[in-house]
Design brief:
Length: 401
Amino acid sequence: MHTATHPKAPLYAAGFVTAFGAHSIAAGMGAQSDNIGLTLLGLGVLLAAYDVAEVFLKPVFGALSDRIGSKPVIVGGLLAFAVLSLPGLWGSDPLMLGIARLGQGAAASAFSPAASAMVARLAAGKNAGSYFGKYGSWKSLGYVIGPLIGAGLIFAGGFALLFAVLSALAVAAALWVLFRVPHLPPLPRQRYTVVDLFRQVSERRFLVPTTVLAASMAAMGAAIGFLPALATRHGLGPVAGTATVSVLAIASLLTQPRVGRMRDEGRIKDNRGMVTGLLITAAGVALVATIPHPATLFIAAAAIGTGVGIATPLGFAHLADTTPPERMGRTMGSAELGRELGDAGGPLLVGGIATATALPFGLGALALLVAAAALPRLPQPRLEAPEPPPQNTIPAEPGPE
């Protein structure tokens, strides 16, 4: 397959849409939580709403992309995202805000794993680290400009203007994919039983990278919501508060492509790289939990972004290299299910513990969980046994030196 005939930029743009949409709203809710009457627990619930929908639907749409091809799932998901963003026009009402978040999450659960699966197929067993490094950097670009542009749009026209822009952006991305990305026909698939599926998702080569992705997203989801809230409570304005999220995303944007290239060049191993990424992420969360200060918020954001930027492309590239192409969509959907469990669970964990005690305790618990996720290891690659010589051949004696 010649990847040059399959433009990847529209696929990266699909990843950008989900990141821009999810996190422009999340950061905006964090900064505006007092204005729309949200408690810490209520903020955690609304932050998680986007991901709750994805938890149930990503494996379904991932399997559908294996059956009918990724392109129609991507285009349909982006168009659904545009339509389901419309309840957000009444975003000053927390209920309508929650409905819009759920709808966007349901739509993103279609095009996000399908885009990941198509990126993996285009990699075709080569340069998976570089491909997913670039894909992740486009998502990080959404994290960078999403909070700042989101804050500006909310300031100019409230949540209604932000959701209107998101709807138009999703339509534009859908048209780009429709006209620029050729249809990759689905590959023949063998039948899988429930037992086969359970065996596949319980293998360490699947569980370990998926756990890493889940822990990374738990930290990122909580940071994107709670860093702006912490910043405003320490005397920073809403725009400066959302800038903490952009620092996080810039660190991730700069890290992911470089780490992907290093992996493809053999300069970084999946096991060691993912462990390093998680420990840096946990250190960033622990810093903001123990020393909540305007300066440390930005240092912690940079650490979290760097750690996530190291772990994420390695996790996805490992999955791409160890999954048969004919079930890539289902694997990516299941792996992204793990990510969304983390993305939903992180804010809920921090918000719940913060409500019962105080915010530093919630962040401290999250830091411990992220560090614990670094303990499992990938299985060692099996060494190929040398082929025995034919029985009717006598090995030659070594000659003189």
